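Late entry, 5-O-phosphono-beta-D-ribofuranosylamine complex.
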Amino acid sequence: MTRADPDRLAVFLSGTGRTLVNLAAVIDRGELPAEIGLVVASRACEGIGRAEALGIPVRLIEGEIEASELEAVLDEFSIDWVVLAGYLKRLPVPTRWVGRVVNIHPALLPEFGGPGMYGDRVHRAVLEAGVPESGCTVHLCDEHYDTGPIVFQQRCPVLPGDTPRSLADRVFQVETEAYPAALRLLIERSGSGG
Ligand code: GRF
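Prediction complete; structure with ligand written out below:
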């Protein structure tokens, strides 16, 4: 697929929408050849208000999405990439979408991932393991949690006296660079970017 238009992202979220806001800012600065064409929320959440404030169309689809419904909404909005940004439901990955559904996990996979590993639980597990580094992992999605091929990882230190919250804040800072970098890489590799 080669064309002049920027790739269109659908951002899926269930929470604050911080990742959405960061991606929108990066795109606005011309640092990612993409546009956000749709936000899908799995529940009423702060991210919906943030999407609306950015002028992005929002679909609230509660619970787990069926594959056919997912394909229909992605086609309706001419989406090229599904970008999970704090989306807490399992998502089917229809064959045609394999390699085009991306997630960011707030720790280094394959350790510190899997069902139930989200939010502060991840950072608590990292602290309990006593490892010197954490970071984030951008990976392609399959139908399991946190298991698809890794695209990009970025590390940060775990510091003495860290709490799950202080570590989460440091990891999120790293995410704000890593997610755009990984998406840039994927778009460039796919040959469809701008
Ligand atoms: C990020 O930390 C990301 O790693 C994870 O969800 C978080 C963003 O969620 N997948 P939110 O925007 O704070 O709700």
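The first strand starts at residue 7 and ends at 13. Will revisit in the morning.
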